[in-house]
């Protein structure tokens, strides 16, 4: 269930066509006759033979799952000709939200030959299904429950005479997640037709409020065994709908890391808030002719740290990163979760890359060059991160340095006891002043509410202010004297668009990271998506909270008899 009790996955009865091998006789002959009668596909026949190899001798083996009414009607007419083949009711997993939660919930599917070799047959005697991805796999043991069994006495013909002992089954545990299905729907709709990812986190506790990767897929297709052509179509599609971009996609984070880097410079005492530079539109290392260009030709003039965040001045951060150096940069940024897995309760998470001298020597067998820090300092080069990591790092800034472990599970109800890990994992070791966190919040607020790169987002904001940072991540390299011209590039080589932010600025309750692949500009492609999520959070959540408080106060003021009658009514 989601946080409000909306059903995300359950079990439903379906008809399946199964074969009892002890009664069916020659399986090859049976399948040869059954194939034209029911129009079995080559994939169905191949899957049946695979299931036969892993199934126990006495266990019925499905030949077709989730029979349609037409299948049932057809089989009922020819059943007499196929001894040992029956239509039986079995329980099947069902995802009522379809594609909406596919990448976070994952799916269950038939146990494979490889899985069958490692599973305890007694534990999985009552089912052919197992969690393959997402929540379904991570919490498989709790969701699975325990199989029931009975010892029976039979006669020589196998007919049951009496039950000697019975152990009832134990249902699986129900899980309640931090996810908000309405927020998830808004995020999904905002990304419609575009490749990308959105992650929203509650910075107060690490609860994951939305987790979207687009395009997606319908997990119901996998439950009974997806047809080969359909699976290959999903697997080989150029937009990679099976790829979980939020969890596994590693991208250059672009300018979204500038607030973190600015705090790192304060931590190391390299700058203060009044430290200024004169930006001519580029930066050059001593004795080197190469120009590291700012995104604004001609530069931004006199820039301090506030202004550098607000207008995303590359030149300021070229100088900052050069003074910091790659190893100090690495040690500082690692505190925000970069370069390592976040520990979220999902499988197959990627760690991204947070470069260092040791990393390059080990990975590339090469020394670190000073000029490489310029790209890393503006979130390019070797530096990569997942949308989940950007959302987590944003939440850590929002709560002023309290480190978190993002988590989907809010609570559970059932026989299996699940220990939810502690979500607060310490504090960022920061040598600056406590008010520096507030000042960085203000700098990020100016990105939207000042003269910053996301100024267009402040239109039509109702009742709240947001703090944010845009980002543009270069996909295709540009030569020194070459001008970026997107009209000459394949659209899949356009820049990625990022936006990270939190709201409200004071006491934040939601932190968001948005990535739009090849979206070109964070302010126009990714920023409005984050604003849509914030709007929902503050229009719907806060109105709902105010309504609940008002209703509780109104009810408390009523006479006891009126309260009783109103509840009965």
Average pLDDT for all residues: 89
In the sheet with the most strands, the strands line up as 10-9-20-19-18
Kindly state the number of beta strands.
20
Helix content: 25-40%
Query: What does the radius of gyration come to?
Result: 29 Å
* Global outline: elongated
Distance between the termini: 28 Å
Percent of residues in beta strands?
Answer: 15-25%
Largest sheet: 5 strands, antiparallel
Q: What is the count of helical runs?
A: 22
Stretches where pLDDT is under 50 for at least 5 consecutive residues are none
Structural class: alpha+beta
Walk me through what this model shows.
The chain has about 575 residues and is α+β, with helices and mostly antiparallel strands. Helix 9 packs antiparallel against helix 21 and helix 13 runs antiparallel to helix 20 (about 435-450). It is elongated and about 95 Å long. The longest helix is centred in the C-terminal third of the chain and has 36 residues, at about 520-555. The two termini are about 30 Å apart. It contains 22 helices and 20 strands. The strands form eight sheets. A five-stranded antiparallel beta sheet has the order 10-9-20-19-18. It has a three-stranded antiparallel beta sheet with strand order 2-1-3. Strands 4-5 form a two-stranded antiparallel ribbon.
Describe the SSE topology.
Layout: E1 10-19, H1 21-24, H2 27-38, H3 42-54, E2 61-64, H4 69-78, E3 85-94, H5 102-105, E4 108-110, H6 113-118, E5 129-131, H7 134-138, H8 140-144, E6 149-154, E7 160-167, E8 174-177, H9 181-190, E9 196-201, E10 208-214, H10 220-223, H11 228-236, H12 245-248, H13 258-267, E11 277-279, E12 282-283, E13 292-293, E14 301-303, H14 305-311, H15 314-324, H16 326-334, H17 357-364, H18 372-377, H19 387-398, E15 402-404, E16 409-413, E17 424-427, H20 435-449, E18 467-473, E19 496-503, E20 510-516, H21 522-557, H22 560-568
Antiparallel strand pairs: 1-2, 1-3, 4-5, 6-7, 8-16, 9-10, 9-20, 11-14, 12-13, 15-17, 18-19, 19-20
């Amino acid at each position: 269930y989601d946080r409000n009790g909306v059903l995300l996955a359950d079990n439903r009865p379906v008809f399946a066509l199964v074969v009892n091998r002890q009664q069916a006789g020659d399986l090859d002959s049976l399948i040869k006759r059954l194939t034209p009668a029911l129009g079995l596909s080559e994939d169905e026949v191949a899957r049946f033979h695979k299931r036969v190899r892993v199934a126990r001798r006495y266990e019925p083996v499905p030949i077709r799952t989730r029979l349609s009414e037409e299948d049932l009607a057809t089989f009922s007419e020819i059943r007499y000709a196929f001894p040992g083949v029956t239509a039986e009711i079995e329980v099947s997993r069902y995802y009522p939200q379809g594609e909406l939660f596919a990448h976070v919930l994952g799916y269950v599917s038939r146990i494979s030959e490889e899985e069958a070799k490692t599973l305890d047959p007694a534990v999985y005697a009552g089912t052919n299904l197992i969690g393959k991805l997402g929540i379904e796999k991570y919490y498989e043991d709790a969701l699975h429950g325990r199989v029931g069994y009975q010892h029976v006495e039979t006669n020589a013909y196998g007919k049951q005479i009496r039950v000697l002992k019975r152990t009832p089954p134990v249902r699986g545990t129900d899980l309640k997640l931090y996810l908000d299905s309405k927020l998830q729907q808004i995020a999904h709709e905002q990304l419609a037709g575009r490749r990308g990812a959105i992650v929203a986190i509650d910075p107060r506790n690490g609860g994951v409020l939305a987790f979207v990767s687009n395009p997606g897929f319908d997990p119901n297709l996998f439950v009974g065994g997806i047809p080969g052509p359909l699976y290959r179509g999903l697997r080989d599609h150029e937009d990679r709908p099976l790829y979980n971009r939020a969890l596994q996609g590693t991208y250059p984070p672009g300018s979204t890391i500038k607030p973190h880097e600015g705090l790192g410079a304060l931590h190391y005492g390299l700058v203060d808030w009044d430290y200024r530079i004169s930006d001519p539109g580029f930066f050059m290392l001593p004795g080197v002719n190469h120009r590291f260009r700012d995104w604004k030709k001609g530069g931004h003039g006199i820039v301090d740290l506030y202004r550098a965040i607000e207008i995303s001045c590359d030149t300021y951060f070229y100088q900052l990163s050069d003074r910091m150096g790659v190893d100090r940069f690495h040690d500082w940024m690692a505190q925000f979760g970069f370069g390592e897995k976040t520990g979220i309760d999902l499988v197959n998470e990627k760690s991204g890359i947070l470069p260092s001298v040791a990393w390059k020597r080990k990975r590339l067998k090469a020394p670190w060059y000073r000029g490489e820090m310029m790209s890393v300092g503006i979130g390019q080069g070797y530096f990569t991160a997942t949308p989940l990591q950007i959302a987590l790092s944003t939440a850590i800034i929002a709560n002023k340095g309290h480190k978190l472990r993002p988590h989907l599970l809010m609570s559970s109800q059932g026989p299996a006891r699940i220990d939810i890990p502690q979500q607060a994992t310490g504090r960022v070791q920061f040598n600056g002043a406590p008010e520096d966190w507030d000042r960085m919040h203000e700098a990020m607020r100016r990105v939207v509410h000042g003269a910053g790169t996301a100024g267009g987002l402040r239109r039509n904001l109702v009742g709240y202010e947001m703090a944010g940072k845009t980002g543009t991540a270069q996909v295709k390299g540009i030569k020194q004297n070459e001008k970026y011209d997107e009209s000459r590039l394949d659209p899949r080589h356009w820049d990625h668009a990022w936006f990270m932010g939190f709201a409200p600025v004071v006491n934040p309750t939601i932190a968001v990271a948005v990535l739009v692949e090849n979206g070109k500009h964070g302010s126009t492609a990714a920023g409005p998506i984050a604003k849509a999520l914030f709007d929902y959070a503050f229009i719907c959540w806060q109105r709902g909270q105010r309504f609940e408080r008002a209703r509780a106060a109104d009810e408390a003021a009523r006479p006891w008899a009126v309260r009783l009658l109103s509840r009965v009514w």
